[in-house]
Design a protein that fits this description.
alpha/beta, 8 strands, binds 2-acetamido-2-deoxy-beta-D-glucopyranose, A_deaminase_dom, hydrolase, A/AMP_deam_AS, zinc
Length: 344
């Protein structure tokens, strides 16, 4: 029974067949070969994979809703009982966006409607697969002009499944040069919208510092390179800051050394830090949550007790309202007491 904060699959494979004509391939297998990252590369080469297929999905109402619903199905199968999934509404739209993404032609699907479709898909999935799914809307570092819309969408859909704002993308683009991100986060603070920021994944510890101090992030996405600034790390430990870690992802994006035995997550574990284990993008990494847990168990010395502890931390750090958080914690605690020890 797990809690995760993760990224969308961003693709449902049967769709490749239906819309094969607009893709450079005809079969799901060929598509997988093009997009799956098998060996450690760079964050940029990972992000380039989206160019292979996002133009097929963005702007397509049916596809977007179906991906959201099937995402919940997949998480339920992985034993997840609560998930927060993040995506950029603008990157799935083809209208009402400054600079339409993926070289698409202008269409009629706005970021606002994208959020509605995803909410519908997630809700259908929740009812069907009996788990809880919430979403986080991403600002993109290279597109400061979208950030105001993003926070407005967070406000508008606060009671319909959207629980927080995120900032993703190229960490070399810091916020001081892009006041629009700062303004969006200020508005989030003002309106009680929860905040997380991708920081210290490949960018230096200073990006983490900025995320926490300037953007008032309540959780740090990845955060591995926080460890390079000892003072900052100690401070964040003392504050119980939550780190959303993604072991498999960090290896394949080149964010961390490919040798898992020296992974920053081990330091988080030893220091009893507040962190979660997440999948990041399971499609491109051809992975799932079991793979992350297995890796932590086999190569990082994680025990059943630590898995339980980190899931409790995840639930405590979730962006659910207090009452729902309590219910989630109760469910977890009851399940963990019953399962004294499960064979891994
Ligand atoms: C993790 O953060 C949450 C939310 O702030 C808090 O409730 C919890 O006690 C923290 N856990 C640890 C181990 O610091």
């Amino acid at each position: 029974m797990n809690i995760i904060f993760t990224f969308f699959y961003f693709l449902f494979l049967p769709y490749v067949r239906m819309r094969g004509k607009t893709l450079p391939v005809n079969t799901v297998e060929e598509m997988k070969k093009r997009i799956i990252v098998e060996k450690p590369g760079t964050l940029t080469s990972f992000l380039e994979k989206f160019n292979e297929y996002m133009h097929v999905i963005a702007g397509d109402r049916e596809a977007i809703k179906r991906i959201a619903r099937e995402f919940v199905e997949d998480k339920a199968k992985e034993g997840v009982i609560y998930v927060e999934v993040r995506y950029s509404p603008h990157l799935l739209a083809n209208s009402g966006v400054k600079e339409i993404p993926w070289n698409q032609e202008e269409g009629d699907l706005s970021p606002d409607e994208v959020v509605r479709l995803v909410n519908e898909g997630l809700s259908e999935g929740e009812r069907e697969f009996k788990i809880k799914a919430r979403s986080i809307l991403c600002c993109m570092r290279h597109m400061p002009s979208w950030s105001k819309d993003v926070v407005e969408l967070c406000k508008k859909y606060k009671d319909e499944g959207v629980v927080a704002i995120d900032l993703a993308g190229d960490e070399s683009l810091n916020c001081e040069a892009n006041p629009e991100h700062m303004e969006a986060y200020e508005e989030a603070v003002r309106c009680g919208i929860h905040r997380t920021v991708h920081a210290g994944e490949v960018g230096p510890a200073s990006v983490v510092k900025e995320a926490v101090e300037v953007l008032k992030a309540e959780r740090v996405g990845h955060g591995y390179r926080t460890l390079e600034d000892d003072d900052l790390y100690k401070k964040l430990l003392a504050q119980n800051m939550h780190f959303e870690t993604c072991p498999i992802s960090s290896k394949l994006t080149g964010a961390c050394n490919a040798d898992f035995t020296t992974h920053p997550v081990i330091t988080f574990m030893k220091d009893k830090a507040n962190y979660s284990l997440n999948t990041d993008d399971p499609l491109i990494f051809n992975s799932n949550l079991h793979h992350d847990y297995q890796t932590a168990h086999q190569h990082m010395g994680f025990t059943e007790e630590e898995f339980k502890r980190l899931n409790i931390c995840s639930a405590q750090s979730s962006f659910l309202p207090a009452k729902e958080k309590e219910e989630l914690l109760k469910t977890l605690n009851e399940a963990y007491e019953m399962i004294q020890s499960t064979a891994f």
